[in-house]
Recover the amino acids of this structure.
């Protein structure tokens, strides 16, 4: 096998990198792919709790690059999928404990028996981001339809292109379609116009995402969830399916709007 | 009444989303060339100062702009309508200097 390394990054914190990594990892595994997700946010470990694997950690990324454990020992198998593994970040070390070369060596080893290696990048443009970027075959930039997130995405896109890792693709997270329809939020077309990168997924705002992280069961396992469906669609597009975006933009019908109007919504 | 109709028929008003888009375009334009708005104005003023030494231009209609094709390609576009006049200040200075070197010194003092 020659696995592909996909780095998930954003510049700004809190836009949903870790959520996206967990959910795309789950969705790829549920399509039968062999997947390793790596938490590259050393010192601020989180991918483990989002995936519900926090109780199973023995060794972490720093142990691995320092040679304190074998690769297999640092790969935590997911509860539901035999073909999905997490390599957790170290919680008590800093980002300098891992170098970009370490990440290249690790992913080169993982490529041999995985289909996909997803790297959850830390926020920022410093060493942790460099570590996550260096081994990438593809970069997925997560952003929100909000001025500060789009601005930071633009900055990170420039750095990705300067490192010859471009052009990268966009994942637009937390879109509130009601607000877009009222003209009170940037639309996916607006974000595309501004950043000029292909959008590979549009994830609607969905309260079930918080419920999912509360319980450690990523929302892509919940097919009643719009966000969960959207993450599954991202994975299917990554696997080459030509899948249209979900009909988020469908405006409510006249009757519904009348009801909304008289209901004071 | 218009807004009521807009609400019932679901027309999209120009809300803060459009403001966000235009503000982002402005700020990213300057981010990408690493030249903040005020420094760009300084540059324009300096360029204009050089040009008016050689040309008589209609200062009211001067437009100097950095246009962006994409992230890594920009070009500086200047529109400098020349005003009908008797030649540039520099030419006047050179003429004065030719007539009397002392007059030039007096001008620049």
């Amino acid at each position: 096998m020659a696995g592909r390394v996909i780095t998930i990054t954003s510049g700004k914190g809190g836009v949903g990198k870790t959520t996206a990594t967990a959910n795309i990892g789950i969705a790829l595994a549920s399509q039968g792919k062999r997947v390793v997700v790596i938490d590259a946010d050393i010192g601020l470990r989180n991918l483990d709790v989002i995936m519900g694997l926090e109780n199973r950690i023995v060794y972490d990324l720093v142990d691995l690059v320092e040679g304190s454990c074998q690769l297999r020992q640092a790969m935590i198998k997911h509860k539901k999928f035999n073909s999905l593994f997490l390599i957790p970040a170290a919680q008590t070390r800093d980002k300098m404990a891992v170098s970009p070369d370490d990440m290249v060596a690790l992913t080169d080893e993982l490529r041999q028996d995985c289909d996909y290696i997803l790297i959850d990048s830390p926020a920022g443009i410093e060493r942790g981001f460099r570590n996550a970027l260096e081994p990438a075959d593809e970069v997925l930039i997560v952003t929100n339809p909000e001025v500060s997130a789009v601005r930071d995405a633009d900055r990170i896109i420039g750095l990705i292109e300067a490192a010859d890792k471009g052009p990268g693709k966009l994942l637009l997270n937390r879109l509130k379609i009601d607000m877009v329809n009222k003209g009170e939020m940037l639309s996916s077309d607006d974000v595309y116009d501004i950043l000029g990168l292909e959008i590979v997924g549009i994830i609607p705002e969905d309260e079930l995402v918080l419920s999912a992280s509360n319980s450690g069961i990523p929302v892509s396992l919940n097919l009643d969830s719009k966000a969960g469906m959207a993450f599954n669609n991202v994975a299917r597009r990554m696997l080459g399916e030509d899948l249209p975006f979900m009909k988020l933009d469908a405006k409510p019908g006249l009757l519904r709007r009348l009801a909304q109007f008289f209901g004071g919504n | 009444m218009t807004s009521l109709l807009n609400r019932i028929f679901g027309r999209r008003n120009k809300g803060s989303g459009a403001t966000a888009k235009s503000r982002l375009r402005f700020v990213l334009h300057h981010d990408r060339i690493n030249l903040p708005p005020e420094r760009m104005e300084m540059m324009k003023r300096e360029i204009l100062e050089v040009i008016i030494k050689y040309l008589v231009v209609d200062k009211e209609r001067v437009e100097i702009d950095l246009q962006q094709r994409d992230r890594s390609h920009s070009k500086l576009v200047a529109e400098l309508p020349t005003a009908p006049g008797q030649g540039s200040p520099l030419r006047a200075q050179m003429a004065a200097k030719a007539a009397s070197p002392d007059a030039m010194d007096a001008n620049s003092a």
